[in-house]
Specification:
By secondary structure, the protein is of the alpha/beta class. Strand 17 and strand 18 form a beta hairpin. Bound molecules: 5'-deoxyadenosine and iron/sulfur cluster (SF4).
Length: 444
């Protein structure tokens, strides 16, 4: 038996996927995965650097874990993976001197060698090369007992939004080959997966061997046994009519779109280098809703970007009201090293104003969510059961095609991974509530 490893994941869906890649790489090298940190000899955390809070969270967590290595000695190798080492390895070395391995997102295939070298030499190992070719083409990620999986179709980003550190820590954009994506999807489906979520920082610029993202969606949807196909994230400047058409016409492609708008004022959008205006964004939304009336749209919003005035902020609220988002991820601007905004603009919106603006977007979103989600009341929706409800053991939780959460009573004849028809009775917060009306296949 090899040494046991434990991986904890912070951050986005791409990191969840990357941790599955790491698990696969380490298992192939003879290590054994443990889901219990106290049983592990190798401890990895996979990390996110997008906002300062995310960095602080990981550093605090590692301080909590330090005793497993330093005092107890059970952990022989402790490593930090992903975007934080790539962003600021010096800080990690200084604040967490017991760390043995630092690996950026493009170096996971070197981890077995790094672990070996570390065990032999007792010296810290670091690999932060950004490799523009790295796509982990031939590695099948390790997932267990899942009905829904992530499949990364591209890595990195070329957009250089002025606030964003991603292009610096994940490198240049590159698309994975169609062949390796299909191999991975087919493998997942043969293991019982029915829902696949294609991932990339900006999936709309996917391009491999002349195939664009809309065409890739159609191609992947042909995999037999696959029922639902999702994707994220789309960029408003790149989302094409062809893609909207595929969403409207291909029954396997789910009617949910994550389309971050970030800010509602043209001045701020310009400073952010987003490549579209509020009018462009709103007319895209209008077009999408016209072609796909039952679509659910979600977004990301940043408040407190440099120079954002009260008037600018009002424009953000205005875009929210006009767009009718199901849900938004609402962030306070966080200054990042290396970025254009950090180098050229002053982080000049006072903390208090930022917090107040965030509170206002959250409040507005709450009422928009109820309005959007509540429109399902009285309808029967097909739901993929994900798990037992966190709050009540006698209830199940699943999602509709629109990615809306549905809670309903548990019955003995259904289980995780089943699709059931649920009559929606009411909405509360971000959840729908209902009851199963008839088992098995149903209309979306
Ligand atoms: N500060 C705050 N939010 C940010 N995001 C990206 N960079 C920053 C930053 N520096 C947000 C954007 C993006 C989401 C993934 O994170 O809204 O869409
Ligand atoms: Fe960051 Fe912009 Fe790329 Fe998204 S599109 S990862 S916000 S640079």
């Amino acid at each position: 038996m090899g040494l046991k490893f434990y991986i904890e994941t912070f951050g986005c869906q791409m990191n969840v996927y990357d941790s599955e890649l790491v698990a696969s790489i380490l298992k192939t090298a003879g290590y054994e995965q443990s889901l219990n940190i106290h049983k592990a000899e190798i401890l990895f955390v996979n990390t996110c650097a997008i906002r300062e809070k995310a960095v602080e969270r990981v550093i605090n967590k590692m301080h909590q874990y330090a005793h497993l290595k330093v005092k107890k000695g059970k952990v022989k190798v402790a490593g930090i993976l992903g975007c934080i080492p790539q962003y600021s390895s010096d800080r990690l070395k200084k604040e967490l001197p017991f760390i043995d391995i630092l690996s950026g997102p493009d170096n996971y295939d070197k981890l077995p060698q790094m672990i070996n070298d570390c065990l032999k030499s007792k010296k810290m190992q670091e690999n932060l090369v950004l490799d523009k070719e790295q796509n982990y083409e031939d590695i099948l990620p390790f997932t267990e007992n899942k009905h829904s999986v992530f499949v990364t179709v591209m890595r990195g980003c070329n957009n250089y939004c002025s606030y964003c550190v991603v292009p610096y820590v994940r490198g240049r954009e590159r698309s994975r080959s169609v062949k390796s994506i299909l191999t991975e999807v087919k493998n997942a489906v043969s293991n019982g997966v029915t829902e696949v979520n294609l991932l990339g920082q900006n999936v709309n610029s996917y391009n491999s061997e002349g195939m664009n993202f809309a065409q890739l969606l159609n191609k992947v949807s042909e995999v037999e046994g696959l029922k639902r196909l999702r994707f994220a994230t789309s960029h408003p400047k790149d989302i094409s009519d062809e893609l909207i058409q595929v969403m409207a016409e291909n029954p396997k492609v789910c009617r949910h779109l994550h389309l971050p708008f970030q800010a509602g004022s043209n001045d701020v959008l310009k400073l952010m280098n987003r490549g579209y205006t509020r009018e462009d964004y709103l007319s895209k939304i209008e077009k999408i809703r016209k072609l796909i009336p039952d679509i659910a749209i979600t977004t990301d919003i940043i408040v407190g970007f440099p120079d954002e005035s009260d008037e600018d902020f009002e424009q953000t609220l205005d875009v929210m009201r006009r767009s009718g988002f199901d849900n938004s991820f609402m962030f306070i601007y966080s200054e990042r090293e290396l970025t254009h905004a950090k180098k050229n603009f002053k982080d000049n919106v006072p903390k208090k104003v930022k917090a107040e603006r965030q509170k206002r977007v959250i409040e507005l979103q709450k009422s928009l969510s109820i309005e959007q989600i509540g429109s399902d009341a009285g309808k029967t929706k097909e739901v993929l059961i994900e798990s037992v409800s966190k709050k009540r053991k006698n209830e199940l939780m699943g999602r509709t095609e629109q990615n809306r959460i549905v809670i309903f009573e548990r019955t003995n004849d259904v289980a995780e991974g089943d699709y059931v028809n649920v009559l929606i009775t009411r909405a509360e917060g971000l959840s729908l509530f209902g009851k199963i009306v008839n088992n098995g296949e149903g209309s979306k």
